[in-house]
Amino acid sequence: MRADRRRHDREILRLAVPALGALTAEPLYVLADTAIVGHLGTDPLAGLGIAGTVLTGVFGVFNFLAYGTTAAVARRIGAGDDRGAAEQGFAGLWLAVGLGLALTAGGLLLAPAIVDAMGASADVRPFALTYLRISLLGAPLVTVMLAGVGYLRGTQDARTPLLIAVAANIANLLLELLLVYGLDLGIAGSAWGTVTAQALSAAAFVALLLRARRRTGADIRPNRREIARTARVGGHLVVRTASLLAAFTVTTAVASRISDTTVAAHQVAFQLWYFLALALDAIAIAGQSIVGRYLGADDAPGTRVVTRRMLQLGVYAGVIAGALVLIAQAPLTALFTDDDAVRDALRSVLPLVALWQPVGAIVFVLDGVLIGAGETRYLAGAMVVASLLFMPFALAVLVFDGGLVALWWTLGVFLGARVVGMGLRYRTDHWLVTGAVRA
């Protein structure tokens, strides 16, 4: 039993640790842009803030290209069908290209209206529009990258996406320094630097898929049936992600209506919670790969054992994260703000940030497990229900003047609803559908 546990731990950590590195590497794109553009002036930085917020939200919705492809490819790998896994990867790639091109076309058409809707001032608007338009040209590159990441994770390779992400971030930084300062292209140079780095990453993923095609003899032509299946799974995940974003948006909207101090403290608390969630989400990403492979290999009992261990490791990680928040309360409040009122508000809510870490860990791991099992339709429905249950509680904070602490208790309601919704499914055998392809 102990030997099996050690084997599962090695398997989980082999995928989770590189996934954590890749997850933390991705935000460095925006961080590098912010650091470089910040020295160009307030208006360019504000323009980047507006455009970056839009791009982060839009590209976040398309994460289903990675998640859905991971689960489908992992099933094929578990069944010993390397050719089918590669063809599944190409199905995700073709869908990514189509969606990326559509996103570019639609985004360029709507860019002025989007920037205006975000409330850009007359001085900031040109910078936001420039960055957004150039970045939208890279949309097909981003979607191809997501599909490529999903394919490699499905083959149980989390190390290569990390290496590509690190190399792309280094290229992005060097290119931006050259284009912004060397060629004096301003915010446009920053955007072009990022798009070029994205092109290099996308080319690397395509090259790896083509190498898999040569090794397996996979057919790279668009397979309408496989693309449709991937799109259907993607539709479920879009509903799930949109419901999640809606809940978080309502939370911020409520905080902003309480007071400026409240929304400032909430922003810091939420970003801290989100950053720590990346570490916990790494286990969920490992779960997508491992669950798909076990089910593809017709090993339902083994799936139960390994997922139970993932949940244990997730809770341990959540407890550690929560303890770190409690220990570091004083330096955290000093690090993020000099405003005494914001510091006081932040101190009041950090214990809840800590408390929700283990609960969030259960949520993230169950999410990864059920995505790996192909339970995307159920996940979409469960997320919609959890969001609808949460919103009246969040709005009640305004009605009864509950304040920031009450608002963060309602986030606990949201996480609890997600635990119940996914936990009920996990306790059954309905998700343990084995085989190379989920019917």
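Above is the first protein from milestone M3; the second protein from the same milestone is given next.
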Amino acid sequence: MRRNREGSKEMPATADSASERETSRRRFLKASSGLLAGTAISSTLSSQVGAQQGDKDSQTLERIERQSRDPQRRILLKGGTVISMDPKVGDFIKGDVLIEGKKIVDVSANINARAEVINASSMIVIPGFVDTHRHCWENQFRRVIPNADIAGYNDFRDHVAVFYKPEDMYAANLVSALGCIDSGVTCVMDWSHNSRTADLSDAAIQALFDSGVRAIHGYSAPADTGKWDHQHPQDLIRLKKKYFSSDNQLVTIAMATLAFYDGKASDIQFARKVGVRTTMDGLSGTYARVVEELEQSHLLGPDLTFIHCTAVSDAGWRLIADNGATVAMAPTSDMQIGLGPAIPPIQKALDFGIRPALSVDVECSLPTDFFTQMRVALYVQRSAAFNRKYKGEPNPPAPITMRDVLEFGTVQGARANGLLNKCGTLTPGKEADIVLIRADEINNMPMNNAIATVVSGADSRDVDTVIIGGKLMKFRGKLLGVDLEKIRRLVHQSRDGVLARSGHKFDDVTV
């Protein structure tokens, strides 16, 4: 026997009660069919509402584009959940961001201003992601060597690099930059270690300008020993004069040098004479004492960014911290292609008071998006912290938070690229590099924690709107002013041409 809610005994089920249950079942099914019909009607109404909103968006976009050359044009992002990443500005469950020209002029709970309004309701408004190290010139070969280790990557790079023409540099940098924009990366360090000729550098830089991304062209000597013009580092002077006479533009330049390059010390000295920052790749494997060697030559300083850092000693970490240099992690790269030791040293950086930045590195093996980098960084550090706790260490490190990781991907990226005065936070006075992420998609609804939704829930398909320097680059999920079919032809022709000239074969190009 069973008991009812009042606790009295119920009689066993009878034929009559079974009949009642069948009647109840039919009544439920009938009601359910009504709900389904209601859903269909609701979907129709929703489509009508969506169409109306689409018309409004189209009209808004048309007006914004007509005013694109007006330095006083205003755009108001209205009603989104705003994560400013600036503690002085704060965050808003429901807030607005006002843009005038290329700059943010206000971030607050409710802004009333004459402006073109972009409806940001059901969206999360964040600073654009900042990538501190991506070899853009390789990216017509996305995922061509997905299972390679570092030796396999070096073999690929060395075999194809010498067969690049300017149009190949252009195609790769353009598709890479557009991939950044599409996935919410508004600023990228283009680490260009295939600058074999002046023409190759020119093509790479032109693609960055044409894409509309904020970028730093990392001018480097070639990574391998193949044929080149030996114009490095002197060509940096020509490039700076030709393309970068002003710092008040989206694309700027830096010196890029490799930890295993014999001329790295002279590169740093030359960069300082020219007046640009230096980024150093390859602090891994056997290059454990590079930082100490630079200190002995009195070359450490806040204008240096060190990448990977998997082999840096404790003494080296202390020197980086004491000299105000910055660090760029490549979480997926270290682990997937085995830059030894292969665990990203996120906790080691934190132990020395260094807040690391993040980067994608090589798309020929790794993901394009920044959501993956944030998640891997989160899991690596938290796993290490918890393991140290479970081993009984007296003072294990605290696990990092979702906000920490978003900071690494925005604030610290801007700092490592030398652009924190321009981007990285939603701060009045900074340039408007802003991303709107949809929180009402099936993978994100219902939104219960905005930062966790960005870091742990969202992906590239949720990037609704991207603004760079106050200009709309992506709107309602679509890149603006991009002929995708033309881009497809460009990158396919480039990939096939380089492969034909090099004779290099990949067993798994199409599988």
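Note on the second protein: The radius of gyration is 27 Å.
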